[in-house]
């Protein structure tokens, strides 16, 4: 009976620690949340999303980040991309969505 109580106490202590750490994790993730430029998500949706790495980036998300930052001058870096389905919509989107200071990073095909 004594071992049973010890096991119950141990379980309750571990459960309490787990709950406290879980709450702290959620709290800190909200406090230190990094807001990503919403254009990145939009540009990523317009890419083929094969995540093949043929563009030289780790995947489509990295390519979208580079496009939004103006680090990509030619969209044809994305080999599976199509002019009408991918490149043109991205060019149009980036033309109408400049940086906060008004700088436009519009890549070409
Ligand atoms: S080449 Fe295109 S499809 Fe492949 S990872 Fe790069 S952006 Fe994505």
Explain briefly what this protein structure is.
The chain has 109 residues and is mainly alpha-helical. 58% of the residues lie in helices and 0% in strands. The longest helix has 30 residues, at 2-31.
Question: How does this structure look, described?
Answer:
By secondary structure, the chain is mainly alpha-helical. It has 2 domains: 1-33; 38-96, Orthogonal Bundle (3-methyladenine DNA Glycosylase II, Chain A, domain 3), CATH 1.10.15.40. It contains 4 helices and no strands. The chain starts with a helix and ends in a 13-residue tail after the last helix. The structure holds iron/sulfur cluster (SF4). Residues 47-48, 50-55, 57, 59-60, 63, 78-81 line the site of iron/sulfur cluster (SF4). Iron/sulfur cluster is lined by residues 47-48, 50-55, 57, 59-60, 63, 78-81.
């Amino acid at each position: 009976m004594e071992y049973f109580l010890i096991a119950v106490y141990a379980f309750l202590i571990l459960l309490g620690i787990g709950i406290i750490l879980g709450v702290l994790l959620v709290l800190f993730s909200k406090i230190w949340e990094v807001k990503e430029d919403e254009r990145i998500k939009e540009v990523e949706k317009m890419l083929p999303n094969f995540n093949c790495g043929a563009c030289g980036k780790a995947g489509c998300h990295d390519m979208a980040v580079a496009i939004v930052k103006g680090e990509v001058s030619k969209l044809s870096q994305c080999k599976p991309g199509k002019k009408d389905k991918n490149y043109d919509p991205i060019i149009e989107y980036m033309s109408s969505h400049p940086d906060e200071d008004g700088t436009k990073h519009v890549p070409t095909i």
